[in-house]
Amino acid sequence: MGLSEDHLRASCDALAACEPAFAAAIGRVGYPAPRLRARGYATLLRTILGQQVSVASAEAVWRKLSSVVGDATDPAVIALATDEQLRSAGLSRQKASYARSLADEVTSGRLDLAALPANDEEAIAALTQVKGIGRWSAEIYLLFAEGRADIWPAGDLAVQIEVGRILGHDTRPGEKLTREVAEAWRPHRGAAAIFAWHHYGAGADAAPV
To answer: What is the pTM for the complete model shown?
Structure first.
């Protein structure tokens, strides 16, 4: 799933047409690459593992988890794993609790990741019922795994930094302002977020000219 390359380019072009600062930023760093993830339990579990750690650290924990418990993509396997197994794979006590909670929600049928509500806010509400899934994690999942085009993770620090940089703000806008300025970007806010991360990755080259 996720937003395809063609969809991203078309949305970025639409953003550039309504916001000259986006056009200038695209001219500096180019179009972003797609961020595609599979829909389902494994991606949501990996999102939990990636909370507050680097991508490399999250990947290392995922590999270790798979080696310790077997098929980590199967929620039934995680549900049956002991605390000692999860901790030995590198999960903190808190993340072990979150992983087990997610597995229980999926195996019980209370959370059906194949049939989340079509309304974005309702889908976010369904996901955040799971222990350990906050709004940011829900938004990241819906954007990368379901390709929902108007998801806007305004609470993401890198998104805030780059919105401020792209728009020429003197200071980083907070979540409230980041959400407000993006209202004009509907229904392309998902592409705006992916472009913001792309712009952030460009580092010094992305400084306004």
So the answer is: 0.89
